[in-house]
Write a structure and sequence with these properties.
Blueprint: E1 3-8, H1 16-29, E2 33-37, H2 40-45, E3 49-52, H3 79-91, E4 96-101, H4 103-112, E5 117-122, H5 138-159, E6 162-167, H6 174-182, E7 187-189, H7 197-209, E8 215-220, H8 226-237, E9 241-245, H9 257-275, E10 281-286, E11 289-294, H10 307-316
Parallel strand pairs: 1-2, 1-4, 4-5, 5-10, 6-8, 6-9, 7-8
Antiparallel strand pairs: 2-3, 10-11
Helix pairs in contact: 1-9, 5-6, 7-8
Bound molecules: adenosine-5'-diphosphate.
GO biological process, one term: canonical glycolysis
Binding site for Mg(2+): 103
Cofactor: Mg(2+)
């Protein structure tokens, strides 16, 4: 192995830079040249490939976003696009490719495995990739939501209102669940578990009778639109509802300690996997350790939604 390529793809996530830095520095440490590919598969297909030095990744370890930029690239889903990508890698004599991204990005990587060694590093705030307990960015996003909800609660308390806060997660309710339990949300709505408007309204009324003057309802984007849910709750309960969609602020910011550490460990592990001559692998965080697994683990059965924690959240917010 003489040359490794690395790219970030799909949605950005805090900690991607820490992973990138680890790939670059660990690679150089082992005498390998590391090439950064800009803008995901889009940049790969168009040959946006540059050698990265030790200094090129200085001062990025705790910075959010991705220095390499990221993109979505429909062309990569075509045979021609994949061939162009492989041609570029071969032209630059790159022997192995590290892809930092979500499961879509991993599928793209798999199409290149016929011509090059590949390793995936799970990077997405949604924590929706099978085979790993955590994805890079999730912990930071949860902390960002907790911080934002804390601020919203101040206003909710002052105005005695019910706030419906929509958080990210695609079809996965993990961000909503973790943030909801951490900040004591009155209700948490997730795509994994059906919810009942009447139950939520009863809870709001019970709280009101007890003298509670505000409520926070966290809605995972996959559970439905906060606007629709807020309107329905207002109609049924008679309480004023205010809607906040946290949106992209959840994807930004400096990575938390946990994300930065996992990202670095995964970046290092990816280089070890390549040095061992392995391919079609992903790095995974399992039982507090970063390990190597077959990339197919990313498409296995998803870690079950933590119903116990969800139940507990309901019990704590009666
Ligand atoms: P994520 O990696 O966060 O899941 P996407 O699903 O948008 O994000 O995927 C990112 C990119 O990966 C896509 O824009 C496309 O270039 C590539 N990709 C996704 N699915 C496939 C696929 N089935 N085959 C080839 N490339 C894919």
């Amino acid at each position: 192995i003489e040359r490794i390529g690395v790219l970030t793809s799909g949605g950005d996530a805090p900690g991607m830079n820490a992973a990138l830095r680890a790939v670059v520095r660990k690679g150089i440490y082992h005498g390998i040249k590391v090439y950064g590919i800009s803008r995901g598969y889009e940049g790969l297909i168009h040959g946006e490939i540059q050698e990265l030095s030790l200094g090129s990744v200085a001062d990025i370890v705790l910075r959010g976003g991705t220095m390499l930029k990221t993109a979505r690239c429909p062309e990569m889903k075509t045979e021609e696009g994949q061939q162009k990508a492989l041609d570029q890698l071969h032209k630059h004599q790159i022997d192995a490719l590290v892809v930092i991204g979500g499961d879509g990005s991993f599928r793209g990587a798999q199409t290149l495995a016929r011509g090059i060694q590949i390793v995936g590093i799970p990077g997405t705030i949604d924590n929706d990739i099978s085979g790993t307990d955590l994805t890079i960015g999730f912990d930071t996003a949860v902390n960002t939501v907790i911080d934002a909800v804390g601020k919203i609660r101040d206003t909710a308390t002052s105005h005695e209102r019910t706030f419906v806060v929509e958080v990210m997660g695609r079809d996965c309710g993990n961000i909503a669940l973790q943030a909801g339990i951490a900040c004591g949300a009155e209700s948490i709505l997730v795509p994994e578990i059906p919810f009942d408007y009447d139950e939520i309204c009863d809870k709001l009324k019970r709280g009101h009778q007890r003298g509670k003057n505000h409520s926070i309802i966290i809605v995972s984007e996959g559970a439905g639109s906060a606007y629709k849910i807020g309107e329905e709750l207002r109609t049924r309960s008679g309480f004023e509802t205010r809607i906040t969609i946290l949106g992209h602020l959840q994807r930004g910011g400096n990575p938390s300690a946990l994300d930065a550490v996992i990202a670095a460990a995964m970046g290092g592990k990816a280089v070890e996997i390549i040095l061992a001559g392995e391919t079609n692998k992903m790095t995974a965080y399992v039982n507090q350790e970063v390990i190597s697994r077959p990339l197919d683990a990313a498409y296995g059965e998803r870690r079950p939604f933590n119903r116990n924690l969800y139940e507990l959240a309901n019990q704590l917010s009666i």
